[in-house]
Amino acid sequence: MLTENAQIGPQLTDLENTLDSTFIKDSTFIGRASGRSMEGVGIYDGDILIIDRAQDVKHYDVIVACYNGLFICKIADMKNNQLVSASPDYKPVKIKATDEYCVEGVVTQSIRMHRGSSRLGD
């Protein structure tokens, strides 16, 4: 037996703005997740990430950073100064003084791509 499990059209009243103005601001940019290291927090390979540069990073926020020339999506362990994956298959990475490290922003949303888009290079 099926039950209604989606709201559409006029019944969807909790989005006061358009999707663009709800998710995208002057301080945000979009990236694409790759790999499996963040599946434990619901970010899967190919997901679209909405990253906000204006957010202050808090302990255990999901962030995008540039680490030694690589863009990475990890959990910020502020207390231990390390980057943590959301999978036990990947060890935490301790940030050392010799590393090149810059937080690009906090991941505020992720969007699962069920069908690829030619506009996104799929």
From TrEMBL:
Coiled coil: none annotated. InterPro entries: LexA-like, LexA/Signal_pep-like_sf, Peptidase_S24_S26A/B/C. Pfam families: Peptidase_S24 (PF00717). Residues 21-107 form the Peptidase S24/S26A/S26B/S26C domain. Gene3D superfamilies: Umud Fragment, subunit A. This is DNA polymerase V. The lineage of its organism: Bacteria, Pseudomonadati, Pseudomonadota, Gammaproteobacteria, Alteromonadales. The gene is umuD.
